[in-house]
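Following the same procedure, backbone shapes were mapped to integers, yielding the entry below.
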Amino acid sequence: MKAVIIGAGRGSRLRHLTEELPKTLVPILGRPMLDGILEALAAGGFRRSDIVFVCGYKADVIRAAYPDLTYVENRDWEQNNILLSLLCAREHLEGGFVSTYADIVYRPEIVAGLVRSPHDIALACDTDWRRRYVGRSQHPETDAEKLRAGGDRVLQISRRIPPESATGEFIGVMKLSARGAGQFLAAFDAARGAFSGRPEFREGRTFQRAYLIDLLQHMIESGADLHKLDTHGGYMEIDTLEDASMADAWWRGAP
């Protein structure tokens, strides 16, 4: 099983902080976000040799700083989005994988819990997510990748879920067993065949610009079983300058 860090984008809403650095190297809580992600992956049993980084913006900077990772490059990162970025690492996915966004901070035990999950597809879900949106003006709740669940089974995952109806927020970290990865890749190929070149895949987005959650919701609607693993806080996304300024207070207030 491999670990894949999806880190090709620039993070333009962090403005000057990403002029010289890729987003994942922006210091949060006194260190680059990537250091915390690598610590979390290590807690799940992943060695540096098991970790694949999907790079794009400032790829040379990240390669120089972390030469012991395996790299694949998303050369089209300005035109595509998270889903196609992840699939740049396709050759590393088939045996099962843990994937993670690169602009997040979270407790290491979350990855360990996902790896232990008996389910083929398991998504980390923050049930204390709304606390971080109080006073957050540049990244409102409507931007959150929310999910609804029945028990631990995910019923829906979409930004359009009303906040009061959401079970929690998908934090961008998931585990797929070899069987789950096979289902995921088959769903990707089928969706690409059906929607590539068409004006819309999901929620106004083309397949080229699809989020990861777009394919996950497509899988749910096709009958796939997705399950969640809860974290009650211990997670935050750093998307804007405002987020970066609030990070210390958010983390001190984590339960």
Notes: DSSP finds seven helices and 13 strands in the chain. The first helix runs from residue 33 to 43.
